[in-house]
Design a protein that fits this description.
With 316 residues, the protein is mostly beta strands. It has one domain: Neuraminidase (6 Propeller), CATH 2.120.10.30. Helices cover 7% and strands 39% of the residues. The chain is built from 2 helices and 24 strands. The longest helix is centred in the first third of the chain and has 18 residues, at 3-20.
């Protein structure tokens, strides 16, 4: 070995020893990635309790919607059921010949709009076997969120990072973002939208952990972001996975990977926790919906769970 190579060898050995020195004699736990602090939630922040639960009469329920008339709609595969928020019995069933469900919404008049991968399925309120499949948005489309008011249907296309606006008969009225505007950041099929029918709608920009409020004409009215792994923040690559609106206008968010359901004010202020990670095993985001009484419905696998605010709870 030449003197130059010997010197280079000694330098590399000294560097390796320096890098390893902090770990000599250390416990093996130094290499353990501990996420327990992320799952822990201060009980004082949990403002809701579970008050009801029942099995869903659908083979593979995956998406949840709720109407102003108190109807609860669940879809999965190419099937759907309708029941009352106060009665567990199935009132209606429906199915369609189109791709499997990827989202669902209920208009104020009871009409049901199902996102079916690259198209929308419209289901009559009075006659659920009357089904209309709208024109496809293209082979590359993937509807991951849908909302409806008396005159509009908004469909969030996660694959094309676009929010499409239709009238309730399926005519295309517009899209977001407008030309030359920055696109939404959508790293996965999580792209929720929600409306209370007041002329405004909320859309998540999930890759930015952001929620945006738009007017019907597409004008951006406000936006806020709340990124963070701890309880007050929105975590992961792309959250929230689902969004619903309370009667007072506050937002219910449901996250995936680090599953938790929370409430934020319209300006992004963290309000409280509905369900902590300890009550939502696994990493899936849970679809959520809210009725006129402010009860929060959570579709948790094969069960419907209902959460109501604790009367004794006070904000910390």
């Amino acid at each position: 070995m030449t003197r130059g190579r010997y010197g280079l060898y000694i330098s590399k050995m000294l560097l390796l020893m320096a890098l390893c020195a902090p770990f000599v004699g250390c416990d093996e736990d130094v290499f353990v990635y501990d996420t327990s602090k992320l799952y822990a939630v201060d009980p004082a922040l949990i403002a809701y309790r579970e008050t009801d639960s029942w099995p869903v009469a659908l083979p593979a329920p995956a998406y949840l919607g709720i109407g102003t008339n108190g109807c609860l709609v669940m879809v999965g595969g190419q099937q759907g059921i309708v029941c009352s928020t106060h009665q567990r019995q199935t009132q209606k069933t429906f199915s369609w010949q189109a791709p499997a469900a990827t989202a669902v919404a209920v208009a104020p008049d009871g009409r049901i709009f199902v996102g079916a991968s690259n198209c929308i399925v419209s289901v009559s309120a009075s006659t659920p076997n009357v089904v209309n499949v709208w024109t496809s948005l293209g082979e590359n489309a993937r509807i991951a969120g849908i909302a409806a008011d008396a005159n509009n249907v908004w469909a969030c296309d996660a694959a094309q990072r676009t929010v499409w606006r239709f009238d309730t008969d399926g005519r295309l009225l517009g899209q977001l973002p407008a030309p030359r505007q920055a696109a939404f950041v959508v790293p996965s099929p999580s792209f929720p939208v929600a409306t209370r029918g007041d002329g405004f709608f909320w859309v998540a920009n999930p890759g930015r952990h952001e929620l945006r409020l738009y007017a019907t004409d597409g004008a951006l009215r406000s936006a806020w972001s709340c990124q963070g792994m701890m309880t007050p923040g929105l975590s992961g690559c792309c959250n929230p996975a689902y969004v619903a609106l309370l009667p007072d206008g506050n937002l219910v968010t449901s996250e995936k990977k680090l599953p938790r359901i929370k409430i934020y004010g319209t300006n992004g202020t963290f309000r409280c926790v509905v369900a902590p990670p300890s009550s939502l095993p696994g990493g899936e985001g849970r679809p959520v919906a809210v009725d006129a009484d402010g009860r929060i419905f959570v579709l948790d696998g094969l069960r419907m769970r209902v959460f109501e605010k604790k009367q004794e709870w006070k904000s910390p």
